[in-house]
């Protein structure tokens, strides 16, 4: 679905300009997204397998929930909306803990450059996996993996064929922040 997004400068600040998401991707314009990592108190992390028809990183495992921030939308409100859309979980803004913003640029093709600032949040998953409802158009599968297994598979990207290549610093930050809350 194409939607309007805010355009950001190199430091992640709004430029006052906006365009369709497709144009931002075509021109490599920086725009905001959200990443929500859901974890359980017993040390498991919710991961999603991206849909096989996605434009970027199809069928790879990724963050619990990810999505674009719509033009003029508050970042936390976008995160709450995306959690409801992608995994069918109703949360509030107070359930989300911001842990950082990561600049990411992935050149998918000559006319598709995914240039984003990921606003990353943590949230405790209190519902069992079987009660989540994945968004079939975006998500092929959901899984809960032990934090140690997740760390082994992502640090240094030892399993590059399985996960979206967000980079070692990104994954180390997520793992450290979750571990600090257990």
Task: Tell me what you see in this structure.
With 182 residues, the protein is of the alpha+beta class. The chain has one domain (4-179): Alpha-Beta Complex (Nucleoside Triphosphate Pyrophosphohydrolase), CATH 3.90.79.10. The chain is 22% helix and 37% strand. It has helices at 21-27, 75-87, 147-154, 168-179, and strands at 4-8, 14-20, 31-39, 44-50, 61-62, 65-68, 97-109, 112-124, 139-146. A 4-stranded mixed beta sheet has the order 6-3-8-7, with helices on both faces. Strands 5-4-9 form a 3-stranded antiparallel beta sheet. Strand 7 (97-109) and strand 8 (112-124) form a beta hairpin. Helix 3 packs antiparallel against helix 4. The longest helix is centred in the middle third of the chain and has 13 residues, at 75-87. The chain is globular and about 45 Å long. The model has no long low-confidence stretch (mean pLDDT 94).
Features:
Nucleoside Triphosphate Pyrophosphohydrolase, globular, 182 residues, four-stranded mixed β-sheet, single chain, alpha+beta
**Strand residues, percent:** 35-45%
The strands making up the biggest β-sheet line up spatially as 6-3-8-7
What is the straight-line distance between the termini? 37 Å
User: In the CATH hierarchy, what is the class?
Assistant: Alpha Beta
- CA gyration radius, whole angstroms: 16 Å
Main pleated sheet: 4 strands, mixed
InterPro entries: NUDIX_hydrolase-like_dom_sf (IPR015797), NUDIX_hydrolase_CS (IPR020084), NUDIX_hydrolase_dom (IPR000086)
Protein name: NUDIX domain-containing protein
Pfam families: NUDIX
Domain Nudix hydrolase: 29-171
